[in-house]
């Protein structure tokens, strides 16, 4: 549980505009959908996916670093890493198991014989949307463990899109449909408090010294 007194203490350091912006943005945040990227060789693509998550209100990004183990490109993420939760996994198995244990269905974003177009996708179920590598697509393990397959309709000669472009299109489409639905997709009250605390800490430059002072006095 969030320490409300500590949260109030930190938020008193912030401007009223900052606090109001947090609340407004949190109204549109969701964990109903979560995004997972698998072994992305070019890390600027992962950073761009993170940015799309932040812009369109997806709170969590799951990154599988089984092979390349690179770090987020902060210039391309443009600060998104401060507002989106990044969960890292050292194997596909651990990532899929963790997401399934949270109640997510696993959706592979790839053309497949049983695939579904975006406009036909059932948004009512909490879903983890997986995006694969630029070179090889999603691994066989993810395809075998997927509960469904999703693709973007295309009418040109080119058969694939860059992963960051694909993610942006799908995230925007599904979150827009979600907000126009009757589904309960909002963060819980406790999740909102947790994000307010985390974001307040991320907004205060000398947070370590301020934390030490607060806990010494309390």
From TrEMBL:
Name of one Pfam family that matches: SpoU_methylase
EC top class named in words: transferase
Alphabetically ordered keywords of this record: Methyltransferase, RNA-binding, S-adenosyl-L-methionine, Transferase, tRNA processing, tRNA-binding
Methyltransferase among keywords: yes
Superkingdom of the source species: Bacteria
Similarity annotation: Belongs to the class IV-like SAM-binding methyltransferase superfamily. RNA methyltransferase TrmH family.
PANTHER family: RRNA METHYLASE-LIKE (PTHR43453), TRNA_RRNA METHYLTRANSFERASE SPOU TYPE DOMAIN-CONTAINING PROTEIN (PTHR43453:SF1)
GO molecular function, one term: tRNA (guanine(18)-2'-O)-methyltransferase activity
EC number: 2.1.1.34
CDD domains to which the protein is assigned, alphabetical: SpoU-like_TrmH
UniProt-listed GO biological process terms: tRNA guanine ribose methylation
Substrates-to-products reaction catalysed: guanosine(18) in tRNA + S-adenosyl-L-methionine = 2'-O-methylguanosine(18) in tRNA + S-adenosyl-L-homocysteine + H(+)
Designated name of the protein: tRNA (guanosine(18)-2'-O)-methyltransferase
Residue span, tRNA/rRNA methyltransferase SpoU type domain: 33-171
Purpose of the protein: Catalyzes the 2'-O methylation of guanosine at position 18 in tRNA.
Residues reported in the UniProt entry to bind S-adenosyl-L-methionine: 109, 152, 161
């Amino acid at each position: 549980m969030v320490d409300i007194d500590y949260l109030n203490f930190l938020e008193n350091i912030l401007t009223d505009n900052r606090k109001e912006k947090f609340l407004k943005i949190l109204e549109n945040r969701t964990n109903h959908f979560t995004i997972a990227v698998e072994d992305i060789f070019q890390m600027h693509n992962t950073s761009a996916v993170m940015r799309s998550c932040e812009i369109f209100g997806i709170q969590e990004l799951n990154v599988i670093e089984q092979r390349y183990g690179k770090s987020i490109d902060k210039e391309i993420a443009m600060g998104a890493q401060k507002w989106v939760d990044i969960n890292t996994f050292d194997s596909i198995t651990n990532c899929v198991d963790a997401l399934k244990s949270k109640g997510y269905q696993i959706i592979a974003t790839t053309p497949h014989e049983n695939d579904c177009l975006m406009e036909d996708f059932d948004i009512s179920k909490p879903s983890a949307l997986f995006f694969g590598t630029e070179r090889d697509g999603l691994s066989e393990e993810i395809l075998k463990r997927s509960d469904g397959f999703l693709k973007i309709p295309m009418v040109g000669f080119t058969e694939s899109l860059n992963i960051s472009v694909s993610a942006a299109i799908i995230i925007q489409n599904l979150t827009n449909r979600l907000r126009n639905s009757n589904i309960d997709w909002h963060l819980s009250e406790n999740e909102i408090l947790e994000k307010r605390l985390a974001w307040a800490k991320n907004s205060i430059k000398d947070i370590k010294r301020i934390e030490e002072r607060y806990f010494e006095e309390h």
